[in-house]
Amino acid sequence: MLKQDLRKEFSQKRKALIEQEVEGFSRKIHDWFFRSFPVHSYATIHTFLPIKHHKEIDTWLIINTLKKDFATNIVIPKSHADGTMTHYFLTEETIFEENQWKIPEPFPSKHLESSVSEIDLVLIPLLCFDKKGYRVGYGKGYYDRFLADCRADVLKIGLSIFEPVEQIKDVDTYDICLDYCITPNKIWSFL
User: Whole-model pTM?
Assistant: First the structure.
């Protein structure tokens, strides 16, 4: 299927979910992540913050476990109108504001800004993915641009409520393949 058709189909599937389902899926993905990856060996982990009204995976479960049980730096993004993102360390002093898409973002503070080169692992939002590791997001290209700037060895992990589709037919040269994708039922590897 084409990205635009997949975007429409999986947005509708997400809308049909109830809050308790999203919570359950988020918990399962959280558990897979901490059971399956050597989280303690990554100094800096980048994660998206969930858009609740889009019924995204609740990454706050992962963030709270990282803060409680690991000596890991957590980095979160702030998007800009030009399609780029700036990345900030999450601290107890971080103040949030919602952007025009109702995404919670850190209120900028220069002393908390992270360099992309510091990031070791990225948790990536998506609507769906295919069996080759390509993803469909919301279509703005923020994560493809960001991932292109990351170190070659950064670990790229998608988080998906749904299992993969067979193939995304209109993959572009700038689309970056995931290393793994965690669903409520299993971890898909593309290495």
Answer: 0.95
